[in-house]
# Entry
Amino acid sequence: MKITVVGAGNVGATTAQRIVDKELANECVLVDILEGIPQGKALDMWESTPVEGSDCRIIGTNDYEPTKDSDIVVITAGLARKPGMSRDDLLTKNVAIVKSVTEQVVKYSPNCILVIVSNPLDAMVYTAYKVSGFPKERVVGMAGVLDTARYRSFIALELDVSVRDIQALVLGGHGDTMVPLPRYTMVGGIPLTELVSQERIDAIVERTRKGGGEIVGLLKTGSAYYATSSAVCEMLESIVKDKKRILPGAAYLTGQFGYNDMFMGVPIKLGKTGVEHIYDLKLTDEEKAMLENSANAVKGLMEEIDL
# Structure
């Protein structure tokens, strides 16, 4: 198994480190346009492997030749958010970056699975899908796992319980219009609605929607990457080990939830071939309205992309 991570910034480098530490591949390639950065970070990671007991070889490079025949390519390249910026503000510049990266990836690894992390997420996945020409099953966006992790972490704080006992789901676009679903949230098998007041649930949902912005505001010079990289690797592990995990991810819709020709966060089954199934849930009128609002936000971004 060979995994390439494009982008050696905080998200990409931390993702590569987790891949190496977890031995999710025999070989990991870290790519970036900045000379010396991917090489130095990769060498540092490789020198940690005797301590970690990992035999995953990692190399850094400024070109795509060493990425040839990758099984999975994770694209994190793009500009990061700064305080006051929305994910949507990044659209024009990051479309150009993701388009260029995808063209190189396809040239050297035409049979890979693409996992997109760049923001604005749903629009970047759509860009990679159109540019690559790959089957829809082999292009997926990482967003829902991260959004759900934030949601679960806030619930754990509220109830003072283990994060491991919380199962939850977040639908929609990766942004302020995302749709956490309290009705599908369980704590040790107990519905969240039986444990927390509606007022507190609403507050947790709102904090989840603004979770990325909260971190950007605190860091001031960057955006989240620890939880982001963990979320990426949960998806990678399901693909690499053919675990067939049911996780929220940005997948190409062909009628599910009433939407077509767009990527949006939905429950998917992830296996060795990529997105193996999309689960179409029954939603209440209120949930449908929230998802429609999120879908419209995603469509608005897609309409601005000129491919």
